[in-house]
Write a structure and sequence with these properties.
heterodimer; A: globular; B: 7 strands; about 25% helix; elongated; Ferredoxin-type protein NapH (chain A); 4Fe4S_Fe-S-bd (chain A)
Chain lengths: ~280, ~200
């Protein structure tokens, strides 16, 4: 360990990003986990839906990819859908893929799985058995749109793991059965044992779209090159398989989860708000 | 796992799809809409519906009567779309689902102008037409009294001008034939409207 070299701030002041993130993830998951019960048993329909489209009162959110698919396939514009996409798109434009790391229910499940594995095996990070080129994310996005346009039906709307979590919970509460397409979730979880966040980093079209929107985001993880001791802890901590040590966290693939910030012993990584999209 | 092996696995899976039995292809695209199987009120024609609907399930969650159910992957590309089985729970036209639809798959429409389908009486099984009893259950239950269903010589008659296809008559009908249908059934004739030339 290279802690011996004195860091600027004491280790006590390191912000526990992973704790904060887990709290936000849990809250976001609880929202869609409790809501079907409120709807079904108490007939409180103030909140409806899940992360495909969430309605809180008259504040509507529409997932950008699903909205875009619907728009492209029917070639018609519907204002409420566009307005609902506005907040998620602005969020992605400024902060990048934060939906994926801070809100997505699949991310919550995988995070739990991570913690469970850590508790059982004591090994901090799973060895990545298969590392696929990061660029595959863009191919996934393109393939998804092409396939949907060819079939003339949106595919991601009923096969999206983030949406499937909500749908399975709702199906279980409302109809006391699970939908068969939930196996997609199982596949995502199995892939997690091959490589950390295998699905998220390469096969999630929604993640691809959000990464594309946020490729010139304002919030980035900035590396202080002079102070970095190249200990490699951040590289190992990154769930997306990036190398913050090489300043790779500024690329489009980073989802601003803050794991590398927490792992850094020398505090050379920090969230910074850059003034313009480049630099 | 070797990268090559993984890619081979992926390619095998994809080519396996192409060799799947021919019936699968038709079943994936086939619409589940049919007799007594309806879309919620204000739905766009079936040609557009699976493309427009983003399967967010908000209509299912707000429906106070639990009329709307959700399809799963066995219905192919229609997985996750809302669906009403009229003989089980009909639509009571409260229009709450229409108010929450974020994509315009369900469009706002006044109650009397809703056209989910058209009720059609099977005169071979209807008790009133067969002369078995003086049944007028559908006439009594219809929310558009003396408009959508009238009695002519003590037999119910449907008026196309007023029937919304809500399915309340189907739900109430005491006759159930061997194929699970009722003596009055809703045919979603408006769902097959063409939108593209």
């Amino acid at each position: 360990m290279s802690v011996a070299k004195s860091s600027k701030t004491p280790a006590l002041q390191v912000i526990r990003w992973s704790h904060r993130r887990l709290i936000v993830l849990t809250g976001a998951f609880m929202l869609i986990a409790i809501n079907p019960f409120l709807n079904y048993f108490l007939q409180i329909d103030f909140v409806q839906g899940w992360y495909q489209s969430l309605g809180i009162g008259s504040l509507w959110f529409v997932s950008p990819l699903e909205g875009l698919e619907s728009l492209l396939i029917t070639k018609s514009v519907y204002m409420p859908a566009l307005v609902g996409m506005l907040i998620p798109v602005i969020l992605a434009f400024l902060l990048g893929r934060v939906f994926c790391s801070w809100l997505c229910p699949v991310s919550f499940l995988l995070e739990l799985l991570d913690r469970l594995r850590r508790a059982i095996t004591r090994r901090r990070h799973l060895h990545n058995k298969l590392v696929v080129a990061k660029r595959l994310l863009w191919f996934t996005l393109i393939a998804e749109f092409l396939l949907s346009m060819i079939l003339g039906a949106p595919l991601f709307v009923f096969l999206s793991p983030p949406g499937l979590v909500g749908r399975e919970i709702m199906m279980a509460v409302f109809f006391h059965k699970l939908a068969l397409e939930g196996v997609v979730l199982l596949v995502v979880i199995v892939l997690e044992f091959v490589t950390r966040r295998m699905f998220c980093r390469t096969f999630c079209p929604l993640g691809g779209l959000l990464a594309l929107i946020g490729s010139h985001r304002r919030l980035v993880v900035q590396l202080d090159r002079e102070a970095c001791t190249h200990c490699g802890l951040c590289n190992r901590s990154c769930p997306m398989g990036l190398q913050p040590e090489e300043n790779e966290a500024k690329t489009a693939y980073c989802w601003n989860c803050g794991e590398c910030l927490e792992s850094c012993q020398d505090n050379v990584l920090a969230f910074t708000w850059r003034k313009n999209g480049s630099g | 796992m070797k990268r090559r092996f993984f890619l081979q696995l992926l390619a095998t899976g994809l080519s396996g799809l192409a060799f799947s039995p021919r019936k699968t292809g038709a079943a994936i695209l086939k619409s589940p809409i049919g007799t007594n199987r309806l879309r919620p009120p204000g739905a766009v024609p079936e040609e557009l519906f699976p493309g427009k609907c983003i399967r967010c399930g908000r209509c299912v969650e707000v429906c106070p009567y639990r009329s709307i159910i959700m399809l799963d992957i066995r219905y192919g590309i229609h997985a996750g779309t809302p669906f009403i089985e009229a003989e089980n729970v009909p639509c009571y036209l409260c229009m709450k689902c229409v108010d929450v639809c974020p994509t315009g798959s369900l469009q706002r429409i006044r109650q009397p102008e809703t056209r989910m389908g058209l009720a059609i009486i099977n005169t071979f099984t209807c008790l009133a037409y067969e002369g078995i009893t003086l049944c007028r259950t559908c006439y009594d239950k219809c929310p558009f009294v003396e408009k959508a269903i009238r009695l002519e010589q003590l037999k119910p008659v449907i008026d196309e001008q007023h029937c919304t296809g809500c399915g309340i008559c189907t739900n109430a009908c005491p006759v159930t034939t061997a194929d699970g249908k009722k003596a009055v059934n809703i045919e979603p004739i408006y769902a097959s409207d063409k939108v593209t030339p």
